[in-house]
Amino acid sequence: MTTKIGIILGSTRPGRNGEAVAKWVLDIASKRTDAEFELVDLLDYNLPHLDEAIPPSMGQYTKPHTLEWAKKIASFDGFIFVTPEYNHSTSGALKNAIDFLFAEWNNKAVGFVGYGSVGGARAVEHLRLIAGELMLADVRAQVLLSLATDFENYSKFLPGAHQEAALTTVLDQTVAWSAALKPLRNA
User: Where does the NADPH-dependent FMN reductase-like domain start and stop, copy by copy (predicted)?
Assistant: First the structure.
């Protein structure tokens, strides 16, 4: 069975830079034959602020939007989170979407593509802490896209040539770890 990786677009902001970044990730990933890749846009799920009364670790979801989100996330073996950096962290929309679920994240791999004034490095670091709690295995490699050098006028995405090699390493590690964790997911 083919390894499935969800590329999660972690911004819902109007005029977001993340859409171009996520499409770039998908374009490069789609050339690979070792996994299937799908773009998952948080805008398509319209998740409210976390509104489930029972903690996600109990797996007793009650809201239709949570059930739809859980089904989508459960369908993947691993993830690439595309995250902006807002106020030295990830977006509230991505954090909220992550917080809705628990078991659907467990024993899967995650790689990170950040963008911001310092490449989204602080957002990625926060996501690494969150990943540990959710039993998501975060890969070492990461892509950090600077608004000053990988975007024209801080808005038109024009990644440096070296960024594709960095992304390839993130994809290599995420696919390999996703496949390696399969026995744990099947247990």
Answer: 3-149
